[in-house]
């Protein structure tokens, strides 16, 4: 026998309202296009509970226990790259004496209920602890800067655009706001076949883009400073005649030749 559709709260209210007006069960059913038995059950239920709300339902009991749910969550947090199938195997291994085993689908459901959703890992440059500390110090020193001050900076760097190499996706389980958490990232390094370029920008305006041929050393970078960096800074209206040239501490950037040139140009 097919399961009957549950009555809406509005229909229950209508049934009781018509009943209070003195209408019979059969007439109410005809008016609302319902069976007399459904009307009679609704009236009986209202007399017992005095409410039109749905009764609480228990539903099918969960396959996993509270302890197993915690184990699934903690296991995923300890290693964000474990798949649902791998976590399932670990849970089932602890139940070797039991005939009950959970599925990977159950593991996925429990992880989602805990706020851990499968996502593709974010990518960021591989940084040492020392580099992270230096970046934090630099950020704290400049956190009070105004927008006009930031517009007076000419930012520059080299970048390699990979043409050949592996860019396969890695999945992790993470919660909202954890995209840049270290356990949810894949470190990247500048390697593999590609095109190396130097570029700069200030505010919302870009300067020269220079394609680098071969290996860039201090002499090649000195030439870029002369022909592209300083001219770009002087030509960008958003920067003006006086600007701050920002670069990282790459050995060729901090060579005596390049630092002497920038010091001479103030």
Automatic annotation (TrEMBL):
Highest taxon, organism lineage: Eukaryota
One annotated GO biological process: DNA integration
Basic and acidic residues bias (residue ranges): 45-56
SUPFAM superfamilies: Homeodomain-like (SSF46689)
GO MF annotations, alphabetized: DNA binding
Renumbered residue ranges of the record's region Disordered: 44-65
Domain Transposase IS30-like HTH: start-end pairs: 4-45
Annotated protein name in UniProt: Transposase Tc1-like domain-containing protein
Signal peptide: none
Transposase Tc1-like domain span: 78-143
Organism name: Poecilia formosa (Amazon molly)
InterPro entries linked: Homeodomain-like_sf, IS30-like_HTH, RNaseH_sf, Transposase_5, Transposase_Tc1-like, WH-like_DNA-bd_sf
Gene3D superfamilies named in the record: Ribonuclease H-like superfamily/Ribonuclease H, Winged helix-like DNA-binding domain superfamily/Winged helix DNA-binding domain
